[in-house]
Amino acid sequence: MTHRVLLALVLAVAVGTAGCSARSRGSSPSQTATPVPQAHIEMSGEINFLHDMDVKRCYVGKPGTKLLNGYSVSFAGDAQVEGGEVLVPGFTGDGAYDSAMVILNIAQGPGFPHGTTLEEVPQTTVAVTISNAGRAGVARFTNYRSIYGKKGDVRGGLVSGTVTWSCAEVEHAAAPQG
Predict the structure, then answer these.
(1) What is the mean predicted confidence (pLDDT) over 74-82?
(2) Are 131 and 159 in contact (CB under 8 A)?
(3) Which residues pair with 93 in a beta bridge?
(4) Is residue 21 part of a domain?
């Protein structure tokens, strides 16, 4: 598919800065805070990686083929993951989608001296299931090819995995005025 792109582990992603709130708007410190929205990443194959990170934003725009169309969940950066997101351009509501993109930016460090980028190959698949009115999801990806291996060698091998997430709220694009 032409709109599925690289699973990029070193490619910067810029889709906005608004985030999911750790507390409901208008809540006071004495009220129970909503847990920080979380994502969990698991990869195996050439790269074995297990990591939890914060969710920055869940967003729904109109369905379509452009970058900001459909559903997206973006992940906050930390010392191991610089950021990333899951994109579902054809999103029309909760359900299963096989036309999606997964982008993760793994920081350089032990085990990733040059960082690494995974690219789609003919046998690559991405399946996403979104639930709870867009506040939860899982992306399963298989057979991405690593451009760099663990020691920086070219064409390291295949990687598969999952990204699961939860978000306290989902931001919706403003309806066009007309």
Answers:
(1) 84
(2) no
(3) none
(4) no
The range of the structural domain enclosing residue 103 comes to 38-167
Rounded CA gap, 118 and 156, in Å? 9
pLDDT band at 8, cuts 50/70/90? Answer: very low
Question: Considering just the CA atoms, what is the radius of gyration of the chain in Å?
Answer: 17
Structural domains of the chain, count = 1
The first and second tokens of residue 38, run together, are: 């979380």
Taking the C-alpha atoms of residue 57 and residue 148, their distance in angstroms, rounded to an integer, is 29
Residue 1, in any domain of the structure: no
31 located within any domain: no
User: Would residue 94 count as lying in a domain?
Assistant: yes
CA-CA distance, 29 to 114, in Å (whole number)? 43
Task: Pick 133 or 37 by higher pLDDT.
Answer: 133
Q: What is the pLDDT of residues 133-165, one digit of tens each?
A: 999 999 999 988 777 666 666 667 888 999 999
